[in-house]
Structures are given as structure tokens and as C-alpha cells.
Amino acid sequence: xxxxxxxxxxxxxxxxxxxxxxxxxxxxxxxxxxxxxxxxxxxxxxxxxxxxxxxxxxxxxxxxxxxxxxxxxxxxxxxxxxxxxxxxxxxxxxxxxxxxxxxxxxxxxxxxxxxxxxxxxxxxxxxxxxxxxxxxxxxxxxxxxxxxxxxxxxxxxxxxxxxxxxxxxxxxxxxxxxxxxxxxxxxxxxxxxxxxxxxxxxxxxxxxxxxxxxxxxxxxxxxxxxxxxxxxxxxxxxxxxxxxxxxxxxxxxxxxxxxxxxxxxxxxxxxxxxxxxxxxxxxxxxxxxxxxxxxxxxxxxxxxxxxxxxxxxxxxxxxxxxxxxxxxxxxxxxxxxxxxxxxxxxxxxxxxxxxxxxxxxxxxxxxxxxxxxxxxxxxxxxxxxxxxxxxxxxxxxxxxxxxxxxxxxxxxxxxxxxxxxxxxxxxxxxxxxxxxxxxxxxxxxxxxxxxxxxxxxxxxxxxxxxxxxxxxxxxxxxxxxxxxxxxxxxxxxxxxxxxxxxxxxxxxxxxxxxxxxxxxxxxxxxxxxxxxxxxxxxxxxxxxxxxxxxxxxxxxxxxxxxxxxxxxxxxxxxxxxxxxxxxxxxxxxxxxxxxxxxxxxxxxxxxxxxxxxxxxxxxxxxxxxxxxxxxxxxxxxxxxxxxxxxxxxxxxxxxxxxxxxxxxxxxxxxxxxxxxxxxxxxxxxxxxxxxxxxxxxxxxxxxxxxxxxxxxxxxxxxxxxxxxxxxxxxxxxxxxxxxxxxxxxxxxxxxxxxxxxxxxxxxxxxxxxxxxxxxxxxxxxxxxxxxxxxxxxxxxxxxxxxxxxxxxxxxxxxxxxxxxxxxxxxxxxxxxxxxxxxxxxxxxxxxxxxxxxxxxxxxxxxxxxxxxxxxxxxxxxxxxxxxxxxxxxxxxxxxxxxxxxxxxxxxxxxxxxxxxxxxxxxxxxxxxxxxxxxxxxxxxxxxxxxxxxxxxxxxxxxxxxxxxxxxxxxxxxxxxxxxxxxxxxxxxxxxxxxxxxxxxxxxxxxxxxxxxxxxxxxxxxxxxxxxxxxxxxxxxxxxxxxxxxxxxxxxxxxxxxxxxxxxxxxxxxxxxxxxxxxxxxxxxxxxxxxxxxxxxxxxxxxxxxxxxxxxxxxxxxxxxxxxxxxxxxxxxxxxxxxxxxxxxxxxxxxxxxxxxxxxxxxxxxxxxxxxxxxxxxxxxxxxxxxxxxxxxxxxxxxxxxxxxxxxxxxxxxxxxxxxxxxxxxxxxxxxxxxxxxxxxxxxxxxxxxxxxxxxxxxxxxxxxxxxxxxxxxxxxxxxx
Length: 1280
Known about the structure:
Protein name: Neogenin
Organism: Gadus morhua
Number of helices: 5
Radius of gyration: 50 Å
Family: Belongs to the immunoglobulin superfamily. DCC family.
Membrane topology: Single-pass type I membrane protein
InterPro entries: FN3_dom, FN3_sf, Ig-like_dom, Ig-like_dom_sf, Ig-like_fold, Ig_I-set, Ig_sub, Ig_sub2
């Protein structure tokens, strides 16, 4: 079974359940017969074949509308596919049995029949030449006609041969309709033997051969100086003939005497009989229909053609005869009223005119009825409606009323009224318009006719039982007139239509007046007028507009029956308005592009066939060139003069002529072809002059005049120049910005633009002058402003206006301005919108954002203040951008573990509740093939373990919020190390890699600092004792300073704002001598590696300079050796380092933030770090020599590898610094404190002492302690 849902006129839904066998059965013609020409005694074949999925169709043939009997016919046979073959065509003067019209009919039993188009079979006699080609001579360049006159019906079957070879026709060789051959502009190649042949109509027949020769010499016109050009044509109706010289109309037969050079030109003979034969074409084909018994249906069919095609409807091969139940409506549509089972079948629309005929079919399936639901109880349907009565009976309508069923079994009952004319089996249905309604008026009934009515109730379970049939007879119509017959409407002019009609056949007394109703189809409103005659001419109608007319006759009893509508379109005329929006765009020094829009639709007055463009040099009256174009809305005019001003105007043309033209528009070509491969430069100046409600802006063009400037763009607004934008011509140098607010601060920007884009803007600001006379009675602002959130980007703002009546109805020209912005203190940009209602829908907002709304009233020149603020937060939506800054690094000591870091999406559109990390070894794999790792929303880093060594992985991250998942990030590639040894031996220096290191060389960082002489004495192992003491003192000092700083901060909260501001500004300054100054901060950047001192030191010789990092050792250049302190980076070959030189020594790196700094001690065998409270202590200024330190640590999620080479530098160098790529938020700058360099011998000794003082267990303990300090450091640096 299949379920069909159908909506009735009263908006009630009907559910139709029927077997699958009721589906439409495809049934159509795969080939149809075509018009055919046959020869007496020859063969004729008329093709026809039909297709159906259900069964094989049976094909029959009709000749001249009557079925043919082919079983006993020996000459005419039905082929297997349904085609008709006629052998030995019979045709004589008094016996023409085979000539006529043929139509095939395909039938499938129990389904229906379809008919093909009608084809005409014509029989020609034996070919007879009435004239044949004759020998001729022609001069080069002249024309020659070789005759070949044959039976007119065989002319299409003729062809020509030259020297027994088929002749190819072209622009010079043309075969005329009569069969003759026209040779134009003769040349030597045209000489030869010619003959014509008749083919494809029996045996081929050829004419006699004729020799065409070329005679020497040229010949243009006759030597007598007189030229006669005859022109004749035949046809029905008789065509009119005229000659045209170029575009000028001449006489019918052209006789030119005293030929001169002025008579030279193109002469054209034009014949026209006013008939344009176009075969029919379907605009709308009939469609298949499912319907239930008693319903009304309409098959639509719309056809075009010239002459206008006639429409005929056929049902199962038989013509449909109009009746009370089969009606032709709206010219061509077929309406079937009160369907019965016998109406089922195939309906065809056949259209025919003099140029041909076509057909289209549709199937009608009648459903047996609603299939009951076996799960429903038999008592669930309503019982019959009660007390059905005809409360009002007229000549053409009856009003029925009833009471609800005794047992409705539900609420909201609807009703269907079935009615039929007595003595017929057709029953029609009419449904009530709304639930619970218990009356209906049945219209369009016949006078003095008996009808039977019954009512059925429907509830949610379906249709109930029917009431008993109620017979009712309409009243006899003897008082009012019948319809006026023969209503005709003819368009006389573009604004008038003549109508005529006859006296009603059933007048029922004297006709007093006729009321003429007419409707403009473009508007749909009906108007009427009265007349007492049988004709009327309507004037003052719209041009080229379709109208419908109907007539109603009146007698003393009232209006009679209306006629059917008659449609007619008024004639076309020239356009009454010029084209719109003409614009000129200078392309270069020699061309200008014109663009325009058609005239307004109501003023075109016909179909626009083209446009006429006129242009001239300068603005004064001079000779204007004229160009006629097609329906394109643009034109490029080239070949103009450089640096010349031209004026243009455009007019539209219809079949009736050319309408008014636009105003003259002016444009000037460039002096030279300027550059338009880049945007214009900034305008050289911008001046503003504020007034009360306007600002006058003036400017000068860019200084670089070699770049094309096509115009200027002015942006302006209160506080922002992006509120309004105005585009101006490139010639304009000033503009007045009007309708501004008084006493308001406006920001104005000006940009020059061309086809590439807009140039750099120039900015100005101005404050409009205050109002001289304030408004004595300001309006009250709106009240009760509410913001209702509708979606993630839409908020509806509503309010009330106390100055309106209680019903809040707006009757004057006031309007409301809604202003809104986000609730972010840094965002001062506001948006506004105007409306004339008491609500406004604000769209295009950002998701999960709090907005503030205020409203203002404006009436004339009076405005209220802004209302109270209403707030609303838009709903969340899925993230619209992916997580950013995705980086992948290997974990220290675990080559199969990596750490993925990222930042939240820029457009999260809500609170991020989690992330999903996708990773795969194939970047092109499907998403479902990637491995996923979920991460909670407050994490921005994640470890992935157990990866395969020496493998390239690809990582993507996707964020989610409460509304769903956002887009994925771009894939990031990372290759895991080959082995654990590779991880520990990979060279690093302050977080950046040195790769491709040649064998035998070592990347070395040399750090040294010139200082005062080192201590001259010390005991062995003293460095170890000092280090332990420093650690103990630092931990104690850290605890004490935390308490002191906490108390100090609480005390500072009570100071004044100004003192607090001064204290804040001074917190980063240090007093004392130069050695107490804060060392320079090491700023880390991704792209450029540099060391920038943040605080200016009073020392004229700074310790560090900003220098980019070199790419190789050759890039390092010596610096000035006269500097007091220098730091340098150097790469030295491994062969330069002796065993004696590889002694170790500690190096301390200081990290400073606020009142805390981290001291990291690095040696060849271990790394040691601790936090120290306060400013960097003097312990960081001890003098150490430079040596090699091979150690690795993680500092705030960054790895660094530091190598210090022991040995005197060859010469001082400028410091070379690298930057660590930031993962996560920006870190606090790291301060590197470089110790001064003592003499080499003592330094080497100190390094040896330190190295020998640490045991392996102690080193392991120190490394574990350092790892904890690194975690604390990471937490400090990421704290907000």
C-alpha cells in the first residue's frame, strides 16, 4: 500500500491509502508519424511505436479521423513496432485513397489509450520538368540564374550537380524555393556543366545538362545608364513588396535612370504578408493526477504558436465533449467535476495550427476510497450528522445546516457535503472551511433542478457514517437575464480596447443596462462601469497590459448571469521612460564602458528589442554618433581621442520605436594609459569644515599621477569612520556630508580606489556645531525596553512609547533608532538601525556575547534621549574556527612520547568544554581512520605515548562546546626520533635547533664578560661550600620576603590612587650603582632572533646589543674591540678543543619576574636551579671563566642545550641570541645574567674544584629537585 496526503481547500488534510497497483503507469510514444511526401506507385512509411512498463501496447491507425481495417488490406500493413507501411501508393485525379491525415492510437487493456500527433501524407505525381537549365554566359563578378522548374510539391527534393559531381551550396551558390540555382559573383571556377535532379521520391530523375561559360571583362550595371530591378512574390494572403536601399524604403519595382555613383549601395527586396507561422509548443504540459471519487480536478495545458493553436482534449483516444461536468476553463484547461470511476484513464491535450501539431498526455487514477485501519474500533468513527436541512434555497445556490452527530467520538469535527444532480451518478463534494462549522453554501447550481445532498462527519479517526440523502430543488430562474453571448474584445491602440456582445438569449424582460467588469491582471483588482449599448470602447488603459473583461445584463429584477472572462492585451508603444542608472567608466585613453538598466517595468510599454546610444565630443551641440545595440545592458565604445571629454545618452526601443533618452552624461578619456596594476596612493590632503548638521569635505588627489584613480570613497561616523560609506567620481574634489547630529564628534576617512582596490586612507575628525535654538519640548524616551534572545546571532528588541495612545498605534511619521554594542569596556563602537515599529530584530550578532540595547524616538526634528539599557546574551553555537598555534615537541628522555600544545580557537562561540586530538601517519586518511585523544576543555597541552620511533605523525585538533564540534586545525607534522640516544644528543641552544652539523665540528656558545680581577685566594672546594650556603640563604630569604611582600601589598592598598600609580611605575626601577641595575630582558620571538634591553641603563656602553642570529659560523662578524663588555656566539670545530681545555665550570642563568628570580647552575655533568626572592643577588655576579657545559633541561616547556667552551676568545664578538617558539601564552621575559670572566688559569682551577665536589647520588637528587622547580617555573610564567 502507498499513503497519499492531500490538502483540501479548507486546509483539511486527507490521507489516502491505496494499493501499489494504483501507481502511475509510464505510457508514451517513442516515435510518432511525421508529415511525409510519397510518389505514386512508390512506398510510404509512417512510424509509430509506444512504450509501457506494464504491458505491450496494441497500436491502431486512424485515417482522416476513422479507424482503419488493416487485417484484409494487402497494400497497407501494420509492422511489428506499430508503424504503417503503404506499398504501391495509389493516386489519380479521381482516386486518392492514400492521401490524407494519419494518426496512431496505442491501447493497453485495463489501463487506457493514447493518440499520436496527426501526420499528413501527400502524394506527388511523376516528376515533370516545365523548364530546364539552358546554356549561359556570365561575366566575372556578375550573377546568373539556372532554371529548374518542377512540380511545386517536388521542389524540396531537388538538388544540383556540376560536372556530374554534387554541388555544395553556400553564400554564393543558393538554391531558390522553385528549385532554380542562383550563382552570385561568378568566377572561373563556376564554369562547367550543370543539371538538376529529383531524388527520394521514387526513381531519380535528372534534367538536361547546360554549359555555363565566363566571358572576359567586368560589368557592374547596364551600359545605357538605366537599371530596372523587378521584385515579385506570391502567397496567401497576398504579400506586400518593397525595395530598400541600405535602410531607406524605395518603390516596389525599382527603376533607376541616369545612374550615378550616388546610386551605388545595397538593395534589398522585402516581401511580407503579416503571417508568421510558428508550430505549437508546450509552455505547460498536463500532469498526472491522483483523485478520489466526487472530487473536482483540473488538467492544465498551455501552448504557444503562430497562428494561435487550437486545443482539443482527448480521453483514451476519444474526443472530450464539453458538458456540465467536463468544462474548458481558462482557455485551454480541462476541468472534471464530481469524479466517478469511469473517468479514469489517459487524457491528452492536442494543439494544432497551420505550422504543425503536438500532443501531451497525463493519467488520471481514481482511488477506491480510504482504507480502514484494522486497529481502530468500529465505534471510533462519528455517527451521521443530524437534522440536515436546506435553510436557504435560491435559483443558483442552496445553504445547508445541520446538527453534530449524537456520538462524535472526538472534538474538532469537520464535515464534507456530497451532492449530485438527480438522475446522474456523479457526486461532488464540498468541505467546511473550519472545524466545528455546521453550515455550507453550495453555489453554481442550475436553476429549477433537483439535487440530492448528504453530509459526512470526520474526526481524528477518519470519516463517519453519512446522513440520509436530502432532496432539494432550486428555484426557477425566470426573473433575471441570462449571459450575454458572443463577448469579444479587440485592442485598438496601446490604451484602448473595443468590446462587443449580443443580447442575452433569455432576456426575461427588457434589459435596462449592461455592467462591464474589467480587471488589470498585473494588479488583480476588478472595476466596473455601466452602458446601455451592445458595445463599448475602453480608453485610458495601461499600455501593453493584459486585461480581462466580463459582462452582466440587468433588468428590473436585478443582475443576470455573467459571461465568461475574455482576456486581451493592449497594444505596445514606444517606452515612456528612459533607461535607468546610466554609468560611464573610463577604461583607458581610448575607450569608455557604458552600463545601464532597462526602463521601469510599467513604462516599457512593450518588449524591449534594443537600445540606441548617442555620443558626441564635448558638452556643446555637435554632430552625434549613433549606435544601435541589442538587449545587452552595456557597451564598450573605443577608438576615442585621448584626453577628450565625451557626452553619452541611451534610449530604449520597442517594435513601435525609440523612447525618450537619458540625460547627457559626461566622461573624459585619460591623457595617457595609466598604471592600474596597483591601488592608488594616499590622497595628498584632506580638509573638513563642520557645520551644525553637515560637514564639508575637500581634498586633493594623490601626488603620484601615474596610477589610475577611478573614484574616492568617504567613510564617516560618530567615533568611527566605518558607519557610512559614500562613493564619488574621480573628478570630484569636495563633498558635503549632510543629515548629521549636532555637537557630535565625527571621524572621516578618504581613500582613492581603482579596479585593483582601495588605497591607503587619510583620516580627519570634526565636531559639528551645536544647535542654535534648542528644542523646548524634548520627547520622552521609550520605556520597557526588553531584549529577547532568539538564536546565536539574533536578538529581538521591544519597547513601549508613552507618547502614543494606549493601543500603541503609530499614526505619524515618527521612527525609532535602536543602538547596541557589546558589553566590553574596551569596545566603544556602536551600531544603530532605524525602524517605524515598536520592535526590531537585530541580526548578525556574535554568539555567546552580552549586548546592550537602547532606543531613541525621532519625530521630525525632535528626538528623545536614549532609553534605559536592556541586555541580552546570544546563545552559544559551535566553534567557527579551529584551535590555533598547534605545536608538537618530544618529551625529554622519552622518545616515544610527545607533547602537543595549542591555544583555544579565536572564535570559540561559547565555553570550550573539550578538545579532540586526531593523529595519524597518513595525512590523506579518512577522518574516521585517525586515532583520537579526548582532552578536557581547561587543558591546552596533552601527552601522547607509545608512538613508533622514526615515524612521521600528523596531528589535528578540534574544539567543542555545548553546541557541538568546530572545524579541525591544519595538520601539523612531527617525526619521532630514531632512538633514545638521538633525543639526548640532539643539539639545542636556548630552545632552537642546530641541524645538519658536519662531522668534526661542534656548536659552541661562548659567553664571557669583562670584569674586575677575580678573587686571588680560595680553598679547594670552596665553590661547593659557597653554593650550599647560597642555596640555604636563598630558601630562607625567599620565605621571609614572601611574608614581607604580602604585608607590604596589604599596606599599599590603603594609599591614594596617585601614590599607587607612582609606586607601580617605580616598581621596575632600581637605584644604586651600575652593578645593581636590572640586566637586559631576553625577549623571545618566532621569526627574528634578537636581544633587547627593556630598561635603559645609564651606562654609555651597554653590555648587549640587538643583533640577528647568524646562520653559520661564516655569518659571525667581529665587533668593535673597544667595547667594555661583549657577548658572542661561535661555532668552533671539534678538533680545536683539546682534552686539557674541556674542564668544567658552573654557569648561572638568572630568570627574573617581579620579586622572584630563578638561578640555574649548569655544569658539564648536572644542572641545578633554585628560586631566590628579591632582585638578582651579588652571587650572580661572581667571575667565572668560559668553559664547555653539556647539559639539557626543560625551562617552562622549552628545551635548551648550552655548551660553554673553555679557552680565550680570539677577539670579542657581538652577542648572538636565539628565540624560543612560544607554546601557549606569552612568557615573561627571561633575564640572562652573564658573569664576568676572570683570568683563565684560576678559572680552570675553580671549574675542576666544582666538578670534583659532586657525587652521582647527589647529582641525581639535584636533578629531581630541578624538575620540580621547572614545574613551578612553568606555573609562574603561565599565571595571568
